[in-house]
Amino acid sequence: MRLPEDFIMGGATAAYQAEGAVTADGKGRVAWDTYLEKQGRFSPEPASDFYHQFPVDLKLCQQFGVNGIRISIAWSRIFPTGTGEPNQAGVDFYHRLFEECRMRQVEPFVTLHHFDTPDELHKAGDFLNLDTIDAFVRYARFCFEEYKDQVTYWITFNEIGPVNFGQYITGTFPPSIKYDVPKAIQSMHNMMTAHAKAVLAFEELHIPGEIGIVQALEGKYPDRDIEKDKEAAAMEDVLCNKMLLDATFNGDYSFDTKRRLNNILRAYSGELTIHSGDMQALKEAAKYNCFLGVNYYQSHFIRAYSGDSLICHNGTGKKGSSIFRLKGIGERNFENDIPKTDWDWLIYPEGLLDMLRRVKKDYPNYKKIYITENGMGYKDDFENGIIMDGPRIDYVKKHLEAIATAIEEGVNVKGYFIWSLMDVFSWSNGYNKRYGLFYVDFSTQKRYPKESAYWYKRVSETKEIM
Ligand code: BGP
What we know:
By secondary structure, the protein is α/β, with parallel strands linked by helices. 42% of the residues lie in helices and 16% in strands. Helix 3 packs parallel to helix 5 (88-103) and helix 10 crosses helix 12. It starts with 7 loop residues before the first strand and ends with a helix. 53% of the residues are buried.
């Protein structure tokens, strides 16, 4: 199977997981700094020291046929407290980084927010506080103007679903609140409004280039062919996928979405507040999304469940330790015979194909799609610098095949970014869950191409999925 000639074969990173240097050159704190200090399991330093190593990583991109890179700007490098005056040293860092991308002919896809709201705004309620929306839009406007000559592809947010699940449902992200589904829904809506307002600012400023959003889309399938499992799967789908896709492309929530969201909210005696102007901004912005970024790792098979919430997060790679039961919604079945990673993530490329077909069918105004993250967390063995990561190659191959099939069927997919370019730490798992094409020895910061990097280069050069 082949990919189109102009298909981008990229690698993805995120500022907080890659840069390290969390106090360098006037960077402001983020909630994660305090959270990880308290947790004591692992530190955001040195991460992959991308703050200093980026020329090495971009050179590797060029050598290995990686012609796109997802980079996020750390908001708190530009505005250390989220608002106020810009920090010149932070601003200059990204100018240097984008310049290096151009020099190495690696197209940067730049995300404004990848889970790292500045601490002051996070403490004041993050996106549950409407002031954060205004601050985000001011920050977005600043970046658009500042970097418009160096950046063509802009992404407002990375994964509005998972960041709010982590913060308010699984409790694995700061502020570690568990099972507060109404808070998650409210914050998702507010972040979608912030996205819409940033898109409208982009239009108003006549920024050359393209703007989009990255959503994590996971297939939600009924575990058994019975009505109550079908309804449980539909409920989880609304919460994780449909609500966000409706907001992105329709600028509104469909009748079905509203009905199921209300059912979920009722189970928690909660409600969703829609502020004046929100729906107007969403509606207006829906027509300006130039692309959708799809992050796809896994799907879930959902059973009906009527008890209290109970979530056990597998944050160490102890296979079989995950439990996910959500009151008023359903339970994920981890005991089927679908292959899984050590972190219990179901390896199900069919889910990606179904999702791509669905976007085309249900949201025909989607324009184009980039697969902005996909990859396999794996405990790589470092055998004297030789890293044989066959299972990762197999994982990526199957997902690229799903993409090639979707393209054949007419879905407009223009590129793929493997998560991750080089090894970075994982938010809730730390340094032993590696995803990179390049192995990072975190003590020396030396990079070693894995077997997958050589394979990826061949695919990129030939466009043949071998
Ligand atoms: C996505 C995030 C990435 C990355 C990836 C892998 O949700 O956008 O930042 O972390 O998932 O997840 P994990 O690190 O939990 O394995």
